Amino acid sequence: MASSEGGQATTSSLYSTSTLESARKAKVSMETFYENLLIQDRDRSNRWKKLELSMEEMGLSAEEV
Q1: How many CB atoms lie within 10 A of CB 58?
Q2: Residue 25 counted as domain residue
Q3: pLDDT digit string (tens) for the chain, length 65 residues
Q4: This model's pTM is above 0.85
Q5: Domain count across the chain
Q6: Who contacts 49 (Cβ-Cβ below 8 Å, separation ≥6)?
Q7: Among residues 19, 16, 13, which one has the least CA distance to residue 1?
Q8: Residue 56: inside a domain, yes or no?
Q9: A single Gene Ontology molecular function, please (predicted)?
Q10: Cα radius of gyration rounded to whole Å, the chain
């Protein structure tokens, strides 16, 4: 294992460039996936609230739909 100043190995000396690039791509993919999940959940909640308000304005209950 190669080491840098202070006797500690650096990340770039432990892993190949290809491995580091694959890890970066995987990280970005996972971040994007979970960010989209949060956005979808927020949008779904907003649509649900809007539906409930519309139903309330029309005087409908959940059982009447």
Answers
A1: 9
A2: no
A3: 444 555 566 766 799 999 999 999 999 999 999 999 999 999 999 999 999 999 999 998 877 66
A4: no
A5: 1
A6: none
A7: 13
A8: yes
A9: kinase activity
A10: 25
